[in-house]
Design goal:
Glutamine Phosphoribosylpyrophosphate, subunit 1, domain 1; 6-stranded antiparallel sheet; 4 domains; 29 helices
């Protein structure tokens, strides 16, 4: 697990490649504290840099940048290839003779690319990765990213220079003073709490989409801006009910699911450093920990985070599961003070603003686990593959509204929304229903009624904010909407869409940044390509039925762990953020949401933000979900004075 950087300066003479590379790499020390290296080809204006976290092959035989045995390929690489030893055997069967220097997956990668080419190699790799290769034979640089975006890769063009890096901070160093705010990306952040690829918070920089590669001619600087990524893989979309193998027995699916998941976990236990697992006590992490403990050569270390507030505390459940599995369990109870410290430091942890508030406990838990291990397994991906989110059930429920004629729904929606929320609360109280959130719920139903189609319904169910908090709304469009599938039930479509959008842009971003900020590698067995391929062919009725998601996954879990130990409502890794914003973080939030400050910046709707903050801080309403992305952005902007100054002077 590492951090990579690169520069293509083209024909610019005298460009300080070494100095810029070292400065970029310095911003990524947390991703790779164990080693570093650079490669420079001054005649081409090319530089590659690498920061290393040693996990597999901890000797110098795994150092990067790494050149292939015949010298045709130079690589910088971040990630883990779990089947790399199998790929070595396959090379040998192809008659390729390599005098291996060590047992690193980096060396496997570079030799496979030299002999098979990048595209064939990508089709064979099982793992998480982002890499850049210099292909001397073709005089090109190729960038590639794993199938589900577990590892990040940004690239951009400014100052007549092409740059790429694992984190935005390195490109901020390279392009200092030349970056402008992307208001489309900001709208994505406000509405969804994350920025959808290929956008980044800067107009000049993009994220390479998952399962994509992009190639640049080293000497073709005039064409760099026009080069587009190409996809090398896509998951199987949902099948029409008549095309599904409805005759597949549940028992057969269970057997194959167990075999496939166990193989995925086993493959991800390989490391030359201590490996543990994050355990919430839920279905996904409990299954991963069961198979990891079963196949570990020593007692598995598991880690959980607890909160004093019982409504958010999962540690007690996790401890019960750990005791049953007989893992070496570690739990850490976090205080409000520790939460606030991380919240205030988010701009230094996330160089691109990101506003899923579970980023805070994930960061704290990663730091806690790092005290004992260098690698952790997680349960990420299970919700997307097996329909585990509440919105998947809600999609199935509310999609029935679409059968009502649209004109009638529109009239009914307008009628519901025309009545103020407070009035709805009073009407409910007259009916002896005391629900302070009644108005909020009724208005949400009104917006659901207005949904024009399944995509609009999904957006309403998944959006963090419905207010026009960003002033510049004229050109906003969600770049991921084209991925909405054509077949399947509404719930199945939503789960599939989440795997292509929410999973890489939210879950994987959160886990990668939070773990790597603590020099910890996080692995997700549920995203093993063989498991994904199998899971997406399972009839959806085995995943969800009668409003219950993850049915087949739960049945597998109950084979090995008693149902009463793990059966509980899904809470997610959430924070009591509403309460903390009225408590220890109130002064911090009030300063960031100062109306004069917002007016001077001219980006956000200052009167509306002020209204939401007043209602929240006075405990009239809970607007924490809407305000958190605003606070994250303002805190991030506060740490970038040159950009803030340009905004205040009307230049974005």
């Amino acid at each position: 697990m590492c951090g990579i950087v690169g520069i293509l300066a083209g024909s610019r003479s005298g460009f300080p490649l070494e100095g810029e590379l070292l400065s970029m790499m310095e911003s990524l020390v947390h991703r790779g504290p164990d080693d570093s290296g650079i490669f420079i080809e001054a005649s081409s204006g090319l530089g590659l840099g690498h920061r290393r976290l040693s996990v597999v092959e901890t000797t110098s035989a795994g150092s990067q940048p790494m050149v292939s045995s015949r010298g045709l390929i130079e690589v910088v690489y971040n990630g883990e290839i779990y089947n790399h030893l199998e790929l070595r055997n396959e090379l040998s069967k192809d008659g390729v003779e390599v005098r291996w220097r060590g047992h690193s997956d980096t060396e496997t990668l570079v030799e496979c690319i030299e002999n098979w080419g990048a595209r064939k190699t990508l089709s064979k790799i099982t793992g998480m990765f982002a890499f850049a290769i210099l292909d001397r034979g073709k005089s090109r640089i190729l960038l590639a990213r794993d199938r589900f975006g577990e590892k990040p890769l940004y690239y951009g063009l400014a100052k007549e220079t092409l740059g790429f890096a694992s984190e935005l901070s390195a490109l901020e160093v390279l392009f200092d003073g030349s970056l402008s705010l992307n208001t489309q990306a900001l709208q994505s952040l406000i509405k969804k709490s994350y920025i959808s690829e290929p956008n980044s918070i800067y107009r000049e920089i993009k994220k390479l989409p998952p399962a994509s590669l992009i190639e640049f001619e080293i000497s073709g600087s005039s064409e760099w801006a026009r080069v587009e990524p190409e996809s090398y893989w896509a998951p199987h979309p949902p099948l029409r009910p008549e095309d599904q193998n409805q005759g597949t027995s549940e028992s057969d699916v269970l057997i194959q699911l167990e075999e496939t998941l166990e193989k995925a976990v086993m493959s991800q236990l390989e490391a030359d450093v201590p490996v543990g697992a994050l355990l919430s006590g839920g279905v996904d992490s409990s299954l991963v920990c069961y198979f990891a403990q079963k196949n570990s050569q020593q007692q598995l270390m598991t880690f959980s985070l607890g909160f004093a507030d019982s409504a958010y505390d999962e540690a007690k459940n996790a401890k019960v599961v750990a005791q049953f599995l007989k893992t070496e369990h570690h739990e850490f109870y976090v205080t409000d003070r520790e939460i606030c410290e991380v919240a205030i430091n988010l701009p230094t942890i996330y160089s691109e603003p990101f506003a899923d508030s579970s980023q805070i406990p994930t960061h704290i838990l990663s730091g806690f686990a790092k005290q004992d291990v260098t690698v952790v397994l997680t349960g990420d991906g299970g919700d997307e593959l097996f329909a585990g989110y509440a919105r998947h059930v809600q999609m199935q429920k509310y999609a029935k509204l679409l059968s009502i004629p649209r004109v009638a729904r529109k009239v009914l929606s307008q009628t519901v929304l025309s009545v103020p929320e407070r009035t709805w609360v009073k009407l409910f109280s007259l009916a002896n229903i005391q629900d302070p959130l009644a108005g909020l719920r009724v208005h949400r139903g009104g917006r659901l009624l207005a949904a024009s189609d399944e995509i609009a319904l999904y957006q309403e169910l998944s959006s963090a904010s419905h207010s026009n908090l960003v002033l510049d709304q004229e050109d906003f469009s969600d770049p991921g909407l084209y991925k909405w599938p054509l077949a399947g039930s509404p719930a199945e479509k939503a789960a599939y869409f989440d795997s292509l959008t929410f999973l890489p842009n939210d879950i994987m971003t959160k886990v990668d940044v939070a773990s790597m900020a603590n020099s910890l590698e996080a692995r997700a067995p549920f995203l093993d390509v063989h498991l994904v391929d199998f899971a997406q062919r399972i009839p959806f009725t085995l995943k969800m039925k009668d409003g219950e998601g993850k049915r087949i996954l739960k049945k597998l879990l109950y084979k090995h762990i008693p149902r009463q130990i793990v059966e509980r409502p899904k809470s997610g890794f959430t924070l009591p953020i509403a309460r903390i914003l009225r408590g220890d973080l109130e002064d911090w939030a009030s300063d960031l949401l100062n109306p004069t400050r917002l007016l001077n910046e001219g980006i956000l709707n200052s009167p509306l933000v002020t209204k939401l903050w007043h209602e929240h801080s006075s405990a009239t309403r809970d607007w924490s979900r809407q305000l958190w992305p605003v606070l994250v952005f303002e805190s991030w902007l506060n740490e970038r004075p040159s950009l803030k100054c340009r905004l205040e002077h009307g230049t974005r």
